[in-house]
Structure formats: C-alpha cells, structure tokens
Amino acid sequence: MMSQKKIVFLLFVFFTILQTQAQVSFKPGLRGGLSLSSISEMHGDYKPDFYVGGFGEINLTKRYALQPEITYTRQGSNDVARDYFEAGTSIEKEERLDLKLDYLSLSLLNKFTFGPGIQIQFGPSLDVLVEDNLAITKNRNDIAFISGVAYRFPSGLTIEARFKKGFLDVLDSSYYSNNSNNYYWLGEYNVNNSFQFGVSYIFGK
C-alpha cells in the first residue's frame, strides 16, 4: 500500500498540473432579444415580447464555461378565451385575454464550445415573478430549464437561440376554461414555454 506521504505528494502533483493547465477567466456581457412565449394546455396564442439582461462568463477551460445570468423576461400567452356569466343575469359572455407574466430570471448555464464559435448551452433557472395580470396566480415563482445553441463571432458578438421550459403550474386553468371552444385541450398543468432569439455581447475580447 502507498504511504500517506506518497498519496499527499501525488495529490499535490495532480492539483499543480490542473492549476498549470487551467486558464480561468471572467468576462461580463449583455444580452437581449425577442421571446415567443405560451402557457401549456390552454387555448391561446404565442405572446411576442422581449428579454434583456446581463451575464458573466467564467471560462474554466478552452471549451467549457459557466455562465451566471440575470434576465428580465416578459412571458405569458395571448388571446386566451374565458366564458363567464354577466353579473346578475344568466347571459353567458366571452372575453379574450392577453395573459402577462414578467419574471426576473436567475440562471446558471453550462456552455460548451466546438469549432471556431459554435456553442451548446443548457442549465437551470429560477424565475421570480415581478408583475402579472392573472386573476388567480398559483405560483409566484417558477423553476425552468434552458437549452439552446449559439454562434460567437471573433468580435465577441453572439447569435443565440434558446428554449425555456417551466415546471411549476402558474395559473388556475378552471378560471379561463371556455365552453364555446371545448374542442381545444384545456388541462390542469399550465406551465411556461418560451423561445428566445437574440444576441449577446461579451466584453474583454
């Protein structure tokens, strides 16, 4: 068996090599663009809006980086139908609603770079609700997972395309269900889905 001195020596050599090879660096950046969002299992259209935020890229190796982000994103779903009875009468009416959910998202992405600038991005996100127009809100916050691809130019400008999937039920679907459109699937599990298309720029290139 190896002596404790040999084990300590080998561990010292190992971590010395790692420290020598590592080129850890931190670079800040800004990002923004178009979001197309919807709420699952509802009769509604995609809501076009925007997102904007900042990030820090922590390069651990030449091909791998961690990227914490803080992003303001406007989500929801447009043209959601709601049937209701007029107060004091038995007359049934319908209204069309544009549902609004604005979040402050705290994300931590893993980024792998291939070739000259192709990136694969994925990681979790905690979304804190800052504003909404829902009649009944089930969860003030959301937990989501982000995946996407990007291409970074030598200048530091990056083109991004992402999909963000929420996991928490965000509203009471029974309030928005509608009889006149009962051939649509209206389920109880109503989560955020969002496509993001935009650009980012990293400083310190």
Structure commentary:
The structure is a single chain. The protein starts with a helix and ends with a strand. The protein has helices at residues 4-21, 173-176, and strands spanning 25-39, 47-59, 64-85, 92-114, 118-132, 141-152, 157-166, 192-202. A hairpin with a 6-residue loop joins strand 3 (64-85) and strand 4. It is 11% helix and 59% strand. It contains two helices and eight strands. With 205 residues, it is mainly beta. The protein has an eight-stranded antiparallel beta barrel.
Key attributes of the depicted protein:
8 strands; mainly beta; elongated; 205 residues; eight-stranded antiparallel β-barrel; 2 helices
Strand ordering within the main sheet: 1-2-3-4-5-6-7-8
Structural class by sheet pairing and helices? mainly beta
Q: How far from one another are the termini?
A: 49 Å
Radius of gyration over C-alpha positions, nearest whole angstrom? 23 Å
Question: How big a fraction of the residues is strand?
Answer: over 45%
Look at the structure and give the mean pLDDT.
85
Helix content class: 10-25%
**Given the C-alpha coordinates, what overall shape results?**
elongated
